[in-house]
Every structure is written in structure tokens, then in C-alpha cells.
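Quick question, first post here. What does this chain look like in 3D?
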Amino acid sequence: MPELDKTYTPTDVEARWYQRWLDDKCFEADPARVSEKRPAYSIVIPPPNVTGILTLGHVLNNTIQDILARRARMLGKEVLWLPGTDHAGIATQNVVEKTLKKQGVIKHRDDLGREGLVAKIWEWKEKHGGIIIEQLKKLGASCDWSRERFTFDDDYNACVMRVFVDLYKKGLIYRGKRMVNWCPSSLTALSDEEVVMKAQNAIMYHFKVEVVEEPGTWLTIATTRPEVIPGDQAIAVNPKDERYAHLIGKHVRRPLPVEDQALLPIIADEHVDFTFGTGVLKVTPAHDKADFEIAQRHNLAAVDVMHPNGVLNELAGKDLAGMERFAARKRAAELLAEIGSLVKEEPYQNNLGYSERADVPIESRLSEQWFLKYPSVKESQAVVANGEMKFHPDRWAKVYDHWMTGLQDWCISRQVWWGHRIPVWSRNLEGNQIVVLFPALASVMEVVREKARVASPSSDTTAKSTSFCAELDGRDFEEVHGRIVQIGDDLYRVEITTDSAMASNKVEMLGFTQDPDVLDTWFSSWLWPFATMGWPEKTSTLKAFYPTTDLVTGPDIIFFWVARMIMAGFEWMGELPFKNVYFTGIIRDKQGRKMSKSLGNSPDPLELIASYSADALRFGIMRSAPLGQDICFDEKNVELGRNFCTKLWNAARFRQMQGGEVETEISAALLSSDDKWILLRLNTAIAEVSTALEDYRFSDATTTLYRFFWSEYCDWYIEASKAVLQGSDEKRKANTLAVIDFVLGHTLRLFHPFMPFITEELWHGMGFNTDLPENQGGKSIMFAPWPKPLDADELAHFGILPEDEKTANDKYEAVNLGRGLKSTFNINKRVRFVLKPSQELPDHEIEVLRILLNAEPLDVDASYQPKKGTPAALTPLGELFLPLDGLIDVEAETARVGKEIAKVESELEKVRAKLADTNFTAKVPQKVLDDHTQREADWSAQLAKLKTMLEALG
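> Answer (accepted):
Ran it through. C-alpha cells below.
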């Protein structure tokens, strides 16, 4: 076979092998191959934003998915890892609008209009939409790219429309006027989950108002938002508050607008916390959710003084109208001061909601929106509670259950243009109109007719009414659904919804207008596990791969996405969408800060791949990712991953340099204690890695792999094997090479899910694929069987007993103790050791000891009598001595150690004095006391060691 290059060049290897995998269709799933003997494994990618770029968060999430998918292939399963991207309505439109404004193409989205802007977004998508997919390929993601989906695909869009109509028919979707989170930048409603709370340094403005019925009686009110005072409709106090209870029912004058100081009632509401602030609350129903609820209880009007873009409107008064909200805040405070109402301003810290995508403070706004009552709630809550669906780590199950218990209706409409248009057409009708519609809407017609009869029972409603008729062919009847909604005293709205393009066109010809809003992005992505597999058709893919096996995602979207997918799965598939959910942690920098572009602490993964390799990045990030915990990213871990690749490469080259046939039979009779030891350690590693992956403990798996390969295999076994490889016994040498091949072959397979590129290169470069069937590792290591530990029969065949591990461990402990002796005296060269054995040792074991100790020579002398003070260590094999004759300058070393002893004694005296001081020990925190106690122990141990050294020096 060709000799491996001296150095590993990952750039060439990674590009070559990824293309080979694609050409050979290694990632493509075939439902026809699924059987009892070849079970399905499926996982759907959390779809990244179509215009997104690779981040470390994507690296973590997709590396985990790839590890799961690649291991499943090695376990003999038919694997579908289904990829795709999300149209990301608000985020994508924001990006494109900002770009067009920066280029001077538009000042506002209205300059282009709906169709024009959407066309520009499609252009942007075509140019930038595939970037993150190509970046995932560089990472090594083994997705079935032939099945790549997009939430705006025609068939996916049809699924979204079908689901909306189904929920509408069931009465779960409705339109209502509610307080919503509003983004003044994106000009759209947001869900609570799309709002990020941020600590702010604000100002609390205190202003006073006079009680009209009691001149000279003033109430002081505190607010952080004086700009919305023109929208105040009442002053609220707690009826139990003795300070103000007698004022209930009286009035105050609203200070702003100055030209319209309206009378406001003082009302009683137990919502008011009289222990907070002054205990007097101004009620601004159109600009605060809590105030809106008070207004509902007291039948107060909701007066909106702000345009959707955050600019004050004419109802705010002539002094504030036209001003941006934060400028208006400052001006409102000035106006209060000018009229003598402002009492004081003081710094105030509070949490303010920000739009997650636009990163601007949100507004609470009264707005008519579409809402959804969640379906299949009981089933979705029970499936996690009873353990049928498992969360990893399981603490998230409690968080999920808490959220599911307090569900509020989902605001599913968004006022942007890039998204799935809400499939509802409506037309307002006066109460005495009779609506003659097609059979599917007969019930709506009857409701309207009844409303007309009640409205004017004595009139000839048939003669006075106007009617319109929709003539649709029979195929459309069942595709159109509607309802009547009363929107005024004598005014109704007929709503029609359909997922049929033909029906919608005919409806528009009748004067119906489609709702301008689009659906929340999550309304499409909650269908992802089954809508990507051909639903509503019962496709072979759906039958074979649904429900999916695993979902890997972040806990920050447990409500956005995970909970909603579970509900959608039960509602339309009748079962759970996935069996396991693994929640990753958040990647932070070494200071504990969340990675972000603004902080400049988020490295570019592609640059890391270019510098270290994809395998190094994957291994490094998984090594620092404990189950469900936040990850403290340190580039040193990626560097460690690169060093690990180099170690693996050099270990393979070392094996090649020994020559001989590859993967020959292992002779049990020729196994040394070191051979048996490494086979037992390999068994342990296989078991630990397998268990860790089954429990989703990826960092534990990498820790085991690092320990086994770097320490146990390279540092111990390979060094020990040189006693045979450098010897003259060819049979024993061939047997040792067979053991090396056996261990390397298993090691590469263990490593493959974590480091796919270098393991594939070495699998072929070492010839381990030779003579194997294509589906068993002949074509690719990704189809080689996942390693299994040797069973009892195999261990018996090789004559491996548990005590064999102890034999080798005793030898390695002796070596460690000997190395410790050299380290104590700063000796870095080959030196003479003398072993006074406690048992008879074979020549082979003595030679291994010599090599590992780097001894020149190693004398074995049962009657050895050392000089007084000769450093020694008691090992499991006997006493090991390090004669110092000629190795060190005894006088200089004695002086150095003496100085060290004096320094340590000084430090020890200080810490003991502190611990003896009762004033100190009684006042300091326990942690400080524990630190001092530990210091005393450390200094004491170091002093004992130094005195032993001094004694050895004579």
C-alpha cells in the first residue's frame, strides 16, 4: 500500500473525501432498505435561517447530529438525516431592508411595495441562501442533501396552508384585538419568546397631579415613560391603601397634553402594589399590558398616542406629535417641569424587552391579530411526563411541563411581507344582507340570514337585502370554509379560508380581500418533522422514518419550536415527532459572555477549520461540551484537537514503518502482558464510549477517547511494544503488529463519528478496508461495524484474565515512581536505575521496564545495598533506586534545596499564624477558611518532600 505522507494535510483530505462520499451517495437514505434487521434512524436538522452563516452554535449542534447519524450507520441502521433551511420571516426581511437602505435603493419598504420587496428578498435568497449549507458540508455534515427542504418549497407551503385551514375549521384560529409585543423597527407583532429582556439604566420621573375635588391635595406618580401620559385614562390606587382609599371616585387633571388636560377618575384596583413607589398608578391602557387589563375591568377606553413606528401621533398633543418616542420622553419631562408638575428625576434600573431580531426596545400595543388555541395539549404534556419522550438533560422536562401548564393563545400573525400569507379572505357586510354562498358555506349563510331577520323582523329582508353568489365547481366546495364574525352593532364580516388556489381566485372575484399579514415563522417550522417527508401523503419516507429518533436543539427554543412540534405531531400524525430531545448548552467565551458579533468574541468557524481542520474543530468543541451545560469556548481545545489528529496520524505512520502484513491473526500463546493489557483497556474504552453516546454524554466520550489513545495506547503500549519490535523474535514481532492493527482498526472506528475525515483517510491508507464488503467498511469506514468489546469466549480464547491488567499496571506504576525520582532532582537524561525485585521477572518484562524508564542501564539486583540517602521508591515490583553518583552537583543542590525549605517554612509559619488567630477564623467566610486550611496542607506536604530530598543528598 502507498506510504502515508510524513505530515497530515487536512485541507486536501477533507475536500477529497467529502466529494467522494457525495459521489458514492453515502449519505442518501432509502426507505426500501428499512427492515427488522436494518432499523431506521432519523433526525431532522433544526433549519438554519436561509440567509444565515455558520456560527459556533451551528458547529456544536450539527457536530452532535453528525456523531449520532454516523454512529447509527455503523450500528447497521438505515439513516436519514434530513437537512433544510427556514425562510426566517422577520430576520430575513430585516437583513434585506437594511441592505437596500444602505445601498440607497429604498428609504422605506413601501417604496418598493409588497411584490417588489418580496422579489428582492428572493433575489437575496438565491444569492446567499446556500452559503450555510456549503459551510455545513465543510464541517463534514453527513446529511441526505438529495432531500434538502426549504420552508417556502411549493409542497411545504401547501402543508402550511392545509394546517391553517384545518385549525380554522376546528375553531382554534380566530382574530382578536389584544395587547401584543410590537417591534417599531420591523413593524410587526412578536411573541413573548421573541422578546429578550435586557437590564437598562433608566430614569424614574416623579410628577404630581392635584385632586380636583380637594384643591391642595396632590398625588405623586412615578413613571419611566412620561411620553405616554397623554394616553392615560385613569389613576388607580389599591382600595386597601389607607392613604388613598378616601379619594376613590374623585378626579385629577392629566398634565399632558398641556392643551388638553382631561379629567381622569381615581379608581380602585387590587392590582396596584401599594408597597411599590408611591402606591399611585397611572393607567395607560393602550401602552401597557397590565394597564390594559385594569382598563378592561373598569371599562376604560384605550387611547393609542403612538404610531406603529414609535413616533408620537396627534393624540399625544402638539408638543409631542411627530417626535420619536425617546426624544418625546425627554421633551415630555421638560413639559412637566415647565408646568410645575415634575417633582424629581432619579436613576432607575429595570429590565426592558427588546426585539430579538431587530434589537430595539419593543412596545406594548393594542392590535388586531390572528391567534391560535394550541391543539393536542394534553397528549403533548403527558408524553414527556410519562417518560415516553425523553429530554436530555432531564431537568428541561420540568421547565417544559411548567410552560405547557400555563399556555396562552399563540399570536400567529406577523406584519411583514416575507412569509406564508394568511389564507383568509374577508368582506364586511351590513346586518341586513343575506349572503348566498356555495354549499360549503351554507351554515354561514344561515347565520347571516338569521342576523338580518332579528335586526329588522318586520321588514321584507329578502327584498331589501343585497346578495352575491359564488358559483364554484363541485371540486372546490369542500376546499372552502367560512364563518360569520360580528364586528359592530349591525356589522358583520364573512371570513373565508381555503388552501385551494383556484377557490381563492374565485373568492377574490366576489370582492373578498386576502388578509395582508403573514404567519409567524414558527407556524411553518412546527410541521418540520413530517411536512419534510411528504405529508399529507403517506409516503414511503414517512412510513419508514417517522417518528424521528433524535432532535438536537438549544433550550432557548424549547417553547418556540420543540413544544409546538410535539403538539403538531400529535394533532396531524397522531403520535410524537421524536423519541429523544438533546438540549445543547450556550457557547460562551472564557469570560463567560455569550458569543456575539457586537462583542467581537465569536470566532469564524471557517477560519478555525482552515487553521486547524474540521476534525480538530469538531473534537475540540465536543471535548468542552458537557451534557446540557454551557460551553466555555477556548481555541486551545481546537488546537488540542489538531494535536490529537497529528498524534493519530503519527501512530498510523509508526505502524506502517514497522512493515509486515496488515491485520494478521493474533496468536494467544504469544501475547505479552502489555498486549493483554491494551486489549483490556480497549474493551473498557469501547464500553465507556458506547455508554456515553447512548446517554448523550459526548464530552465524556471524547475524554475516554483521549485517555485511551493518547495515554494508554501511545504513551504506554506503543512504548512498551518497542521491546518486541526492536528485538529479534520475528514471530512475537508479527504478533505485536497484529495487536497494534487490531487496536488501531477499532480505534479508528471509535473515532470516526467525531473525526470523520482523518479516520476515513487512515482506514484506507492503512488498508483496513481491504477485502471487506462495501456495506461493512469496504467502501467507507462509516459503514464499518461499531466496535464491540471482546466477549467472555473471546477473552478465554486469548487467555486474557482480569489479573493480566494488574500485572501491567504494577509495571507502569513502577515506571511512574521511577520517573518521579528523576523529576525530583531535575534529571532529564538517561540514567542508571537499580531494581531490587520482590518477585522473579522475565527478561522481556525487564526490557520493557528499561525502555519505559529510559534507563541506561537498568540493573536488577536482589542483594543490592544502596549508599545512605540514595533516592528510592517502593514499587509493586520491588524497591527502585536512583543512584546519584556523578549525576548532580551535591553541594549546589543541597544549597538550592535548603533555600526552598526556608521559603516553605516561612509560608507555612504565616498560614499557621492566621489559622491560630481566632479573630481571623471567626470573621472570614468559610471558603476563605477552607483555602487557608488547604494552603497549610500543601505547604506541609512540600516541606516533607524537600526534607526527604535533603536527606538523600547526604
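Residues 869 and 952 are 4 Å apart (CA to CA).
The longest helix spans residues 698-725.
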